[in-house]
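Q: Predict the assembly, please.
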Amino acid sequence: MSAHTLLGAAALAAMITAPLVAHADAGVTAGVAPTRDIAAPAKASPAWRAPEINLAFGLRTMVMPSAGLDPFSTNDSVAQLSLAAGPTLLRRGAVSIAALAEWDYGDKEGTARTDVTSLTMHRLGIGLETRLQLARRLMIFARLSPAAVNLRGSITDAGIPRPLVARTWTWALDATAGLGVMIANTGPREAPTSRFWFTGELGYGFAGEATMTYAPDSDAADPRKYGSIMLPALRPSGALGRLAMVVAF
Amino acid sequence: MNTRPSPRRPLGSAFLLGALATLLPACGDRDAVWGAAPAPVIAHGLDGSAAFVDVGAERVLLTPVEPDLTLAPVSVPVRRGYATSEATRDGSALLVLARGDVPRQKADDEKPGLTMIAGGTTPHLLRTYDISDPLSGLAIDPEGHFAVIYPSAADSSFVANPNELAVVDLATPPGPGNPVSLTLRSFGGRPESLVFTPTLVLPGGARRLLVVLTDRDVGLIDLADPASGDVTVRLSTTGSRVTPVQIAVSDGDPTRSDDARLAIRLAGDPSVILVDLLASTASDSAHDFKPTPNVVLASGPPSDVAFVNTDGGLRLAALVPSKQSLSLIDPATGVSKDVALDAPYEHLSLVTGIVGGPASGADVALLWSASSPFISFVALGSTAGKPYKSVERLQLEQPVARVIDVPAPNDRLKILAAADGRAFFVLDLIARTASPIVSSAFGIDFTVSADGQRSWLLAPGGSDLAALSLSSLHPQNFSLGSPLQAAFEVGRRGGGRALLAVHSDGDLGVTVLDGEHPSLETAVEYQGLLLGSLR
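A: Predicted assembly structure:
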């Protein structure tokens, strides 16, 4: 097991324990009435109430110092569209925990030794986010989200009839922390029906190394057997940041 | 919707935005190799892989073949400033000469160097020899023990010594005494070509010589002690320039140390210089042998010379196309006898070991010509006053431009390539037959497998490939998908043979066929190899 993997596992363990600590703290302060600036916790109700739903739309950027990115980019940055959705699972005082299903999508286009290349990345993750609301319009949060990353590389050369393609999966784990600013809400101030947050976060994305093995895309009309070539392995890992608009309702 | 701005703007937001902004631009440049177009590769066939010199990536890409015909590419870095590369004759190693960084301005700039790469089925870097000067000429010993680096016409330093050589002992690692740099004694000439002799029994013991042909004289370097410098054989002391163009070597009687000799053929001159390598009597000489030149005369300017055995003893055979004759010159007396031929033969090679000579030990020579469609077998000896036993002639459809040897067990065969590159002949030295093989394309290139079982034929730029069985002379044709540049048959991991057909389009393509049972059904095709195995 590599040091990189161990580091990722350690971060995972740390983040899993974080919500439990927050939960205990919330229990201790449960009897304290919220101040005006802190959102009122949901009132206990004997009737079932739908959980708060969070929808996020934003930009995820990562500095990916992997040699595997070199065929596709002249630098190490990767930008992705970032979408997330999920319920707030628990709320105790100023602390809440939310689960998020995440989809990040990005692509890079470049040249490798004058061949046209492209790389498409899909990241499918499930995140657990712990929030601490410091004020009515301000919160900080930490998120841990394990994910599966799908990579599809393509190389097009004028001298060969079909592009060379690599498809592979690897694991990933984002560990981030950030803050959010509520920029608007609807409904009563004490119990808004929806809130709009602008969030920013920083962290590190751990990931496994993906072997990038290229061969011509399959063609039923071509009976030839093709061998594959190996480009540098790609590890979609590195420092990351995300800017997002979040609506919670 | 309540859109009233917050009365308190968190300071952290500005921090976050700033931090995120730093993630967007580039944080590291990629390796420069990805940004440059790959230069045309220089391809070599080795014993267990094909080797492609990828100059732009400063590496050699080697492609050993697995039992299932897939490739297992290996990338070996070489120094910057590629100059030339050459494989050893047996394909066991590839040598890559690089000039390094010119001019060297920083401490970490690379020096000139000679990289030696093992060429088997597990190719790897063997060693790199530092060279003192950025030179571009490389000559490799046919036995693979030595390499010589010398200035070539491509070298254009501000100041250069054209007679400076570096002798590399490839069997030993780099060190203070390896390579050895030396400057040839010069009388105005500069090296034009280099010849490595076989082991000769000389007065000081058995050793090999490096013969350096300049445009006016010949230098002899003892490869057992190259630091001792060269012995120059001056070919003219009268001021008229004669140019050496060929060397023939004879060790003479292996039990004697005083009868080794060289023959030096001169351009456009009927004179041949015989150089006896005798014991040196000078006490201050750095060498224990002394070259003693003598001039002998052929019947005209010879086109090829070789030492041959006749039943009258050792002779220097000199082919004289202008006289359609073969001069047999006694090196001891200089007396010449001519064998009249019926065609202007230009080249000869001895085939005694294949066809078997007479009991007298006389040689059998194969004669061929690039200007006449005849070939002849000459059994050297003497019968009834003639200096030969027999001359047997075969007429082909075309003159022969090139003769290719076939390894055992089919070493009784030679492949004679016609000048048009379209037809060739498989010559059976024992049966004395010449079977024509004809192609529909011109400029055919062909290689013979190391196991002597087959020959591979291709027309560079075309997509057709053929395997010719040298046992049955049955051709098997294949049409590959893209243009071909070269073909190399190599040993496979785990045994067996494989043919690597190199395609010139794209970033290097290779089609791998089973060498012994070639079929497109089992072939594996690779594209874009130059993109792979990079760091």
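The CA atoms of residues 67 and 245 of chain A lie 32 Å apart. The longest helix of chain A spans residues 3-28.
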